[in-house]
Amino acid sequence: MDVADRDVQLPGGRVLRALEAGAAGAPAVIYFHSTPQSRLVHRPWLDALAAAGIGVLSWDRPGYGGSTPQPGRQVADVAADAVAVADAAGLGQFAVWGVGGGGPHALACAAMLPDRVLAAAVVEPVAPVDAAGLDWSAGMAAGNVEEFTLALAGRGKLASALAQATGQLAAVNAEQVADVFGAGLPARDREVLSSPQVAAFLLACLREGLTAGPEGWIEDDLAFVAPWGVDLAGTRVPVTLWHGQQDWPTPASHARWLADTIPDAELRLVAEEGALSVIFRHASEVIGWLSAHLPNRR
Prior knowledge:
It is a single chain. The protein is an alpha/beta fold. The chain has a single domain (3-292), classed as Rossmann fold, CATH 3.40.50.1820. It is built from twelve helices and eight strands. The protein has helices spanning 43-51, 78-88, 103-112, 142-153, 155-170, 177-182, 187-193, 196-209, 215-224, 252-261, 275-281, 283-292, and strands at 3-9, 15-21, 28-32, 55-59, 94-99, 117-123, 239-244, 266-270. α4 (142-153) crosses α5 (155-170), α4 (142-153) crosses α9 (215-224) and α5 (155-170) packs across α9 (215-224). The model has no long low-confidence stretch (mean pLDDT 93).
């Protein structure tokens, strides 16, 4: 599958750096990257989408990679960006696929763009911080709790902490990925990180996303702990959520809450998987589900 980048000009002067892959006119999936990553899509996923006759569209969220920052953005703001990028690519209807921090953005598009979105696949999502009845931080990794606590306190201390983290991550090489990111992870996640192909992809995606600094990461975190501006209960398109029960960054209670809140959503809890392993080991299952909800498949 051929891959090309393009800069999409938005009203007001913002730019989104987008990735397009696949034949023009093919059914397509919009992919929403995790936090903090970028528009890059894992090559085996591109190959699987191509084999299914599906194109893919992705972009750096504001502040990441080549995209203009948008301080103060809400999760809901992604819907307008999705329309702009899809229109620029000549794309009418599409499915959405969100991973990690991309999950809330995929869900926002599903809820807010019922005439454009055909279905939403979400893997390892986080729920809104004000989710009624959810103990939001219970069972969450200590590092995530610390990061989101800083976000709840405002931009200042969060920006300082993430600037320091960005500098540290810039020094990581491919041979160090498993050690740096695998500490404390379940065995299945460490196995995934031991793959040179996965390690190289994660490192490239991270470096591309943080090439201009931590602004996108900061904006994501602030958006996650603020009101999303999305009526999830009003979603009217098919939604399936995948979550590993061995996950520690974001507890499975978040996926359960989302599945209970979104009408007719299906939840696929995978007992033996962690966060990374469910993302990488179940991608073919996700792509198969998306393919079943797109027209004119090969």
